[in-house]
Write a structure and sequence with these properties.
The complex is a heterodimer of chains A (208) and B (250). With 208 residues, chain A is an alpha/beta fold. Chain A is built from six helices and 13 strands. By secondary structure, chain B is of the alpha/beta class. Classes of the chains: A alpha/beta (208), B alpha/beta (250).
Chain lengths: 208, 250
């Protein structure tokens, strides 16, 4: 099996690569690429994302045909795709970081700044927070409710259809931290930095 | 709910840990990779490497250390010391660091903070502030605490927040190495003034010092000696904090 981590020169993906390789061992081939043919032929795709919503969208757009290839993979061929952090946020129709930016529109919704309640909550939301599992998800196999995951973000994904929400985390309000819609998976937290429980989520995705 | 982070810090010089953990079962007491792994297995919420390599020729050793550590530790890794430019930051991130802490360069040219947080995201830019009491305030120092700057620490903290820093690592130079506790007043003043997380550093000697650090408003506490000398394990620290109703990840 081939799992492809999309490299679109946006942010630091070494940790994502290291964690997937750790979990995959020799069983699964982990490819890190922006090559459209390799993405097309792979079994699963991971879309990481760091920095701002706009810089990530710009990064995807800077590679000719990448967005079309990813959309075909995820929407037409319905193969499993995992978005991490801004990788998840980009599923939305629109993001409001820096400037209003059009997203991929795969899961209807928007990405807005977390309400810090006039400074009561520090931003970015950095550190280990517990997830509240609200829906069975394939990537939560053997993951206990209230497990700790590592977060670092200032913006949150607000989907229109609440049924896609698989888990939330409590910070200022109930922030959506995992979504599952058919073959689309996304985590706001960083499984690659969430120790053993995070690696288990990666393992679950690889074994889908 | 969001937990307070416990961050053990390792001083690394020429690729080796200077002050190591006094654990008997360590194969190589000077290997930063092995020590970082012990911390992360023990429940550290984040690992911090401070590169105190004096000469530029030996700088590359830290990249190797970071690269090896990031293949074994799956908790956030912060690296500081000698970070001067966007290029330095880029190299560290490519080696597997999750955050980079900038000290002297941030003071000399705040544009480094602005540019790097725009380029890499503020989540990976930590500004380290070394502050010392002066008159009725605090003055910041650069070059590992050697050079006074005349700059007021509170004003600088606010400026760094505006430049896009994701976190501030605040070290009290008066307290560092004394094991007499954090400079609580400094931590309180900075935490209440800015809206980004503060990591308290400098002076931890007892478990209650960590409790006081969190109560001062810091989001995370960094400590070196108490872990280095094996006085407490990360797990013991967390159990104690939990017994004092401080939210920690156990």
């Amino acid at each position: 099996m081939d799992v492809t981590i999309v490299d679109y020169k946006s942010g630091n993906i070494s940790s994502v690569i290291n964690s997937f390789k750790e979990v995959a061992k020799d069983k699964v081939n982990i490819e890190v690429t922006s090559d459209l043919n390799k993405i097309k032929s792979s079994d699963k795709v991971v879309l990481p994302g760091q920095g701002s919503f706009k810089s990530c969208i710009d990064g995807l757009n800077s590679i000719n045909g990448l967005i079309d290839t990813l959309s075909e993979f995820a929407l037409n061929n319905k193969k499993p795709l995992l978005g991490i952090c801004v990788g998840l946020q980009m599923f939305a129709d629109v993001g409001y970081e820096e400037v209003e930016t059009k997203g991929l529109g795969w899961i209807s919704g928007k990405v807005s700044k977390i309400d810090n309640q006039n400074g009561k909550y520090k931003l970015p939301h950095i550190g280990w927070n517990q997830i509240n599992i609200v829906k069975e998800s394939k990537i939560f196999k053997d993951i206990e409710n209230n497990s700790h995951m590592y977060f670092v973000h200032s913006y949150e994904f607000i989907p229109n259809d609440k049924s896609v929400i698989a888990a939330t985390t409590d910070y200022s309000s109930n922030i959506v931290c995992t979504v599952e819609k058919e073959n689309l998976f996304g985590t706001q937290f960083h499984p690659e930095k969430s120790d053993k429980t995070g690696l288990k989520i990666i393992d679950n995705f690889i074994n889908l | 709910m969001l937990k307070n982070r416990i961050i053990p810090c390792l001083d690394v010089k020429n690729g080796r840990v200077v002050k190591g953990i006094n654990f008997v079962d360590l194969k190589d007491a000077g290997d930063p990779v092995e020590q970082a792994k012990i911390y992360s297995d023990g429940g550290a919420d984040e690992i911090c490497f401070l590169d105190i390599t004096a000469s530029n020729e030996n700088r590359d050793t830290i990249y190797e250390v970071v690269e090896k550590t990031s293949k074994k530790c799956f908790v956030p890794l912060t690296v500081g010391g000698g970070v001067r430019s966007i290029d330095d930051i880029n190299k560290l991130l490519n080696c597997g660091a999750d955050k980079v802490s900038i000290n002297t360069a941030a003071v000399q040219n705040s544009k480094v903070v602005e540019d790097s947080s725009r380029k890499f995201g503020s989540q990976c830019i930590v500004v380290a502030i070394d502050a010392k009491r002066k008159d009725d305030g605090w003055e910041i120092f650069t070059h590992g605490g050697r050079n006074p700057t005349g700059i007021n620490a509170l004003e600088f903290a606010s400026k760094m927040e505006n430049c896009g820093a994701g976190e501030l690592l605040v070290t009290s130079m008066d307290k560092d190495g004394t094991q007499s506790g954090y400079d609580i007043e400094l931590m309180q003043k900075i935490s209440s003034m800015i809206n980004i997380p503060v990591i308290a550093s400098g002076g931890v000697g007892t478990l209650d010092h960590l409790v006081d650090g969190i109560k001062s408003g810091a989001s995370a506490v960094l400590a070196a000696s108490i872990f280095h000398y094996g006085t407490y394990s990360v797990n013991e620290v967390k159990q104690y904090l939990a017994s004092k109703d401080i939210p920690v990840r156990i």
